[in-house]
Here is the input.
Amino acid sequence: MTDTATLKRTREGTAASLELTHALTQTLYREARLLDTENYADWAEMLAEDLHYHMPGIETRYRRDKTEQVTDLTRMAYYNDSKPEILKRLSRLETGTAWSEDPATRYTHIITNVEVELTEKADEFRVYSNFYAYRNRNERDEDSLVGNRIDIWRQVGHAFQLVKRRAILKHNVMLSKNLNIYI
Amino acid sequence: MRIERIGREPDYSRYMDLKEGWLDRRIFSDADIYEEELYRIFARSWLFVAHESQIPSSGDFLTTHMGEDAVIVARQPDGSIRVMLNSCPHRGNKVCFADAGNTRRFVCNYHGWAFDTAGDLKGMHEEYCYDAGDIDFKNHGLKNVAKVGNYKGLVFATFNSDAPSLEAWLGDFRWYLDMILDNEEGGTEFIGGCIKSVISANWKFGVENFIGDAYHAGWTHDSGARSMNNGQPFPPIDMQNSYHASMNGHGWEFGTEGVGDLVLLGRPKVMDYYNKIRPKMAERLGEMRSKIFGSVASASIFPNVSFLPGISTFRQWQPKGPMQFELKTWVIVNKAMPDDIKEEVTKGVMQTFGPGGTFEMDDGENWENCTTVNRGVVTRHERLHYRCGIGREIEHDTLPGIVYRGQYNDANQRGFYQRWLDMMTHDEFGKMPARPEPRLGNVAETRDLPGLFAL
Here is the structure.
């Protein structure tokens, strides 16, 4: 009994080893490269079957207001998707008639502030990161999406799969016409 | 309240000929015309400000805009709803910075002027600095709008004391509106939160797209339809049994097959839910309306609210200058739905008509380019074509409004711009023509209509 309790205290939230941190940081960079190059087939391979991908809408509220905007899954969200739902969205790009994607949007994902922690599950890791996603299309269309992510990644053999992602975009009014991007 | 405007009064009728079916492109980018729209349309119309479910309890409030005027919508202790300018009468600062919340007071950050939820001035920082006679508290509250109305949960407000009642403003459109607001006992509610985005396009492009443009759907949204419906293209349109209906600038385009929009939502459980309640819907609203609901359809309430019955996106196009609007998106559901169906609807809406939705992504791009390209000094003088289906007007026993056959049509768009023109050219609200003469008259409840409206 005491062993379990001690194990929980020492595991959950503990910083991962240098080696694990490096491996997961590289995983995030690889993911960003796949998204930049619209290599969605390989990106989908990085997503676990039980994925939950969530980007909540953020209202401006006073500090005293305790409405839970980030974790309440019944509220409006840009994304609140399972893997099959992400694949459904992606299938639009394979139709050949996604007119607003041709000419292609030019993307750069910059991923920083990576921290890796252990969780209660030996094969799952909590990964914090910040993103700066830049988009440019046609002549002058450009916008910047900036925010934080909290992920759970699961080790599968020598690779990792994304199990949970919560991406918190800092916009209240999203300063863009659409969100043709994964973060 | 009278909204005075001194300045040029151009002849707006030269910007369109709706009998011929063309529009002048300048109405989509001209700064003077836009400014005049804010006075003559937004300051005089009934404007959607909230769904009552967003502010259920005393002290609940949300902030929004009527035209470009910032307003607070607040639930009062007696259950009524007040709408007031979000601007302190002292120096004009905003008194509320949150999108929504609950409060007893709105307090200005500048000098601490404090107002209750009705907008009445209750006190301020260092009140002793005012001598007797300096300030009359009763006359220095937050300016309330002229009228507030509630139609089956949708709260509207107007700055115009001469505006007709909300029921008269919506008129025969209530017969259609009841298909989303009253298709099941208990009425509707909004899902929590609001997604807002910015599109660099004229606000009218959003409204006219939803009021009647079924035509774009099969082409613009081919990729969206296929992604949501297992690779299948947009549902086929039956030009014999689909319609446009226009009433004083409000419009609804629709089929009568009952399932098209529900298919595009891509959530089989939601389809099952509506199929289950459809017999009751027929008892409630009549056979015809139960067949229209869920069909390929879209609608707009004049001047700047739109929705998709069946897909359940509800949205407002807030003007932010001639070449930009803010799109506010909500999800509207029946209160009686079980939680899992509400969740299915919400997910479906965000996967189709959220900013990352498979349909939404292709729309904004089109409207932005329609707006910016139309601005060219030569291009702006070229007319735009709005003649589709111009000869297909019919009389229909059941359907109220100016009705055209075939939902691939520009009829509702012409009806919208006719109302736009009526409002831009008539100083007196009461002198604007009814288009068409209403059938419902003073009927308070479209469920109780005489046989004429039941198929």
Notes: The domain at 2-169 of chain A is CATH 3.10.450.50 (Nuclear Transport Factor 2; Chain: A,). Chain A has one domain: 2-169. The mean pLDDT of chain A is 94.
